[in-house]
Amino acid sequence: MRIAGIELGGTKIVVAAGSGPDDLTQGIRIPTRDPASTMAAVIDALAGLGPFDAIGVASFGPLCLDPTDPGGLRITNTPKPGWTDTPLVAPLAERFGVPVVLNTDVNGAALGEGRWGAARGLRDYAYITVGTGIGVGLVVNGAPVHGLLHPEAGHLLVRRDAQRDPFIGHCPFHGDCLEGLASGPAIAARVGQPAETLATDHPAWELVGDYIGQLCASLLLVTSPRRIILGGGVGQRPQVRAAAEAAMRRHLAGYVRSPALEGDAQMIVPPGLDSLSGVLGAIVLGAGALGG
91 vs 7, 27, 39, 86, CA distance in Å? Predict the structure, then answer.
């Protein structure tokens, strides 16, 4: 069984094929431009990979994942200019004639980490990415959570102390939601320089860690994950992860009791697959169409 995987991100796309970490082609990287030229480049990349049995797509969103929706499986009201209502499944299915499975990029990454990475052997866990945006993939009883839509926990409202953090937020929809306060662009807007240029001891990291810790506390109270994986360019910084772990425990205030939250135990961990979580998760999605 050979699966093509597409990690469709807001700034770049990775296309690869295989069956797992030990059987994976070199990822083909494509910049995310306008939908027409980007999807044409994705189709060209897939065509060069040789035969495959299914395609998995782990995409930025929000997404319509309802197969009965007359508009088809697509990106919906994304803040990324030009991509609203872009179909993702139909063009690939028509071109290649194989099953195509679509899910969110974070649900895909969560499934990859559950199959081969930091959540291996667990059936209840969460994957958070903090970078250009903030997304949360939730796996409960071994399956990614879907419902009316899919989890969009990056837009949860969090407590902001206006004296400590007067920044009003960067989200075009909600202002000071989590993504509006702790994403890479939000950090840059707050401090006036790109997040990746900040020193490791910059006070912004402690602030960002507190907001992510609030998210983690909320996830523990809502779906009770046994592990929380924190990825993305911002999320993988050790100082952010440490601040988030401390803030999560502080905001829980001892209400949730578990050995996983005692002493030096770490509930929040880095990805086990590093930068391959997304494309490997896409391969898990595609394999699911074939019973794999």
Answer: 16, 21, 9, 10
Tens digit of pLDDT for each residue in 190-228?
Answer: 999 999 999 999 999 999 999 999 999 999 999 999 999
- Look up tokens 């001891």; give the residue: 201
Give yes or no: residues 73 and 193 share one domain: no
Residue 87: which domain range? 3-105+275-288
Distance, in Å, from the CA atom of 278 to the CA atom of 69, rounded to the nearest integer, reads 26
Q: 170 with 83, same domain?
A: no
- Do residues 216 and 263 both lie within one domain? yes
Q: How many domains does the chain have?
A: 2
47 phi, psi to nearest 5 deg: -60, -30
Q: What does the block give as tokens for 197?
A: 């240029």
Would residue 72 count as lying in a domain?
yes
Same structural domain, 52 and 189: no
Q: Is 112 inside any structural domain?
A: no
User: Which of helix, strand or coil describes residue 9?
Assistant: coil
| C-alpha distances in Å from residue 34, one per residue of 11, 46, 54 | 11, 18, 25
How many distinct helices (H) and strands (E) make up the chain?
9, 13
What is the Cα 272 distance to its own chain's centre?
14
Query: pLDDT band at 44, cuts 50/70/90?
Result: very high
* Rounded Cα gap, residues 155 and 3, in angstroms: 32
